[in-house]
Amino acid sequence: MTGKLYDIQGFSVQDGPGIRTTVFLKGCPLRCAWCHSPESQEFPTELNWMSIRCLGTDSCGLCLNICANGAIIAGSLQKTASGADVIYPEVDKSKCDNCGACASACKAAALYMCGTDYTLDEVMRRIERDVPFYEDSGGGITISGGECLSQSEFTLELLKRCKAIGVHTAVDTTGFVPWATIESVLPYTDLFLYDLKCMDSELHKQVTGVPNELILDNALKIADKGGRFWIRIPVIPRLNDSEEHFTLYRDFLLRIRDAIDIVQLLPYHKMGISKHDRLLKHEKIFVASPPSDELMDSRKRQLEAAGLPVRVH
Are 214 and 147 in contact (CB under 8 A)? Predict the structure, then answer.
């Protein structure tokens, strides 16, 4: 059995308690307008291009003649960050079949493939290297995405193997999966990092592509079955950052209060913009100024006033 991953990150301290290894699985059913990891959205392996690494077609150009579909041509003259003239390659993604030939030829690794198939044994060997860090810090493994439960069989088997060697497990999920999928992993999941992106279902559908009824219903069921939560709320300007919207968050979270270890408020940031550019899709994405410290503190105090444990990420 294999799973398609786009990263494995050691010494992670933001994805659950202690020092953790976070395994990032590719593919997600949501299309959040502010997504900070757009490379995680599609399920297949994808071509990416990082301009800062590129030597330009004059100095290199190995990618120009390697593509059997003619998807790569020399672009127009541009300036590098240092002010030098350079001609970068242009990739027509409508012709690209993600074969990876250009990435293999790129000596600067400016063109690279995102998404690698790993066996369970390969992932477990990586996890086992970090076990001493878990033992010293109370950490463990977090399976994230994308939406890791979209690769449900691989996620389930990885959780089982981790529990078999006594490793603490966390599942980072959007909650937008069938209840049967969540129910199958419950016995092997010590903690759910559970995203609540927006409380208004119509607005949720506009900005993520899906409504939120299934997400909220699954959260209630997890709490009823004894699951534990770190609730994660991305604070997005002009979307869910108002006092009124946080009143909706408060009212729902109080329904599952006994299952919550912490509520994390995650301020919007712009790190996804450069990652989106690497995908070469040339689509419009959500851009805003990050929320102020004053606003984050205000929303934190609003939830704390209801007796909820809150921290700003």
Answer: no
List the CATH number of the domain containing 84: 3.30.70.20
Determine how β-strand 20-25 pairs with β-strand 2-12. antiparallel
Dmax (CA) of the chain: 63
Instruction: Please give the residue range of the domain that contains residue 106.
Output: 48-112
- Read off the pTM: 0.95
- CB atoms closer than 10 angstroms to residue 81: 7
As a whole number of angstroms, the distance between CA 23 and CA 145 comes to 8
In the predicted structure, residue 282 carries a pLDDT above the cut 80:
no
Mean model confidence pLDDT for the chain: 96
pLDDT tens-digit profile of 152-194? Answer: 999 999 999 999 999 999 999 999 999 999 999 999 999 999 9
Q: Mark whether 256 and 144 lie in a shared domain.
A: yes
Burial of 90 (0-12, 13-18, 19+ CB in 10 A): middle
What is the four-CA torsion angle of 291, 272, 117, 166, rounded to 10 degrees?
Answer: -20
Q: Which two three-digit tokens encode residue 280?
A: 């070469």
In sequence order, what E strands does 226-282 have? 229-235, 260-267
CA torsion, ordered 177, 183, 187, 189, to nearest 10 deg: 20
Question: Which residue, among 26, 33, 16, 6, has the nearest Cα to 194 in the 3D structure?
Answer: 16
Domain match, 199 and 281 both: yes
Give residue-wise pLDDT tens across range 222-240. 999 999 999 999 999 999 9
**Residue pair 218/179 in contact by the 8 Å Cβ criterion:** yes
205 pLDDT higher than 90: yes
Is beta strand 46-49 parallel, antiparallel or unpaired with respect to 111-114?
antiparallel
Residues with Cβ < 8 Å from 59, sequence gap 6 or more? none
The CA-atom distances, in angstroms, between 153 and each of 20, 76, 174, 184, 243 are 22, 46, 17, 9, 40
Partners of 230 in the β-ladder:
193, 262
